[in-house]
Amino acid sequence: MPDDALIHDPNGGMPRLLEIMRRLRDPDSGCPWDIEQTFATIAPYTIEEAYEVADAIERQAWDELKGELGDLLFQSVFHAQMAAEAGLFTFDEVADTMSDKMVARHPHVFGDESRDKSAEQQTRDWEAIKAAERAARAQTGVLDGVAVGLPALLRAYKLQKRAARVGFDWPQTEHVLDKIVEEARELEEARDELGPDQIEEEMGDLLFVMANLARHLGVEPEAALRRANAKFTRRFARIEALLAERGKTPDQSDLAEMDALWNQAKAEDKARQNN
Questions:
Q1: Which contacts qualify for 215-222: CB closer than 8 Å, 24 or more apart?
Q2: pLDDT at residue 105 above 90?
Q3: For residue 275, what pLDDT is reported?
């Protein structure tokens, strides 16, 4: 029988979590669901947990953040346990690889380079180091290494950021705005004259340029859209509450009434933010 002392030690820290994961995956005594999982089946949960971390931060739900970070950490532990079982690598090797990377990428902290340089210079140095790492992995293309599995809007932002480093970029924000107008017209033409595939393509082009505008304005588009989603959710919930006071649900209302309530919710929201 395995020693359960560590499993039940409330101060067991990282060794406790690693042992719990090992036990969950034990082919003889572990959890059937955990045993059946693979890298591919766990990957969606990993992405979901990362978003829940971001959501807690966006809402400043600091009490929740500890748990969400734990959930995300558990995903790393899960993947590392499966890798160890397959003889690929261990969790300690994951931690060592990350430590080596951070030390190598911060010579101004852990090496003999001077810390007396601007944040912009440090960013350029960081990108140069990452470029050298990609070259060592035979990733020679400018866009190599931008993960395909990223959310599409975030990937568009990162692709354009990479291309801009080698000069493939509009020099001024006004040029991006002009391109947005052009893409909007093409989308309108596709809607009126073309089929679903072309409409989807033109919609993608417009979103791609919108991501570029965000980069030119110094805005991370994924964060901006998350914020807009949260605002819409908050204000629509207020519409539902106001309708409930009238003994109604949204499907018993109409656009004119809900639009008026939206304006009320918007005004209330702005008043709270200004207080």
A1: 215/157, 215/160, 215/161, 215/164, 216/170, 216/173, 216/176, 217/173, 220/154, 220/157, 221/153, 221/154, 221/156, 221/157, 222/151, 222/153, 222/154, 222/157
A2: no
A3: 73
User: Is the pTM for the entire model greater than 0.85?
Assistant: no
Give CATH 1.10.287.1080 domain extents, the chain.
Answer: 13-104, 141-219
| Secondary-structure class of domain 13-104 per CATH | mainly alpha
Task: List pLDDT tens digits, range 231-261.
Answer: 999 999 999 999 999 999 999 999 999 999 9
Looking at residue 129, its pLDDT comes to: 72
Rounded to whole angstroms, the Cα distance separating 122 from 111 reads 14
Q: Name the architecture of domain 141-219.
A: Orthogonal Bundle (1.10)
| Distances 11 to 5, 6, 270 between C-alpha atoms, Å | 11, 9, 45
Residue 210 is encoded by which pair of tokens?
């919108």
pLDDT of residue 1 exceeding 50: no
Calculate the alpha carbon distances from 232 to 147, 225, 227, 235 in Å: 29, 10, 9, 5
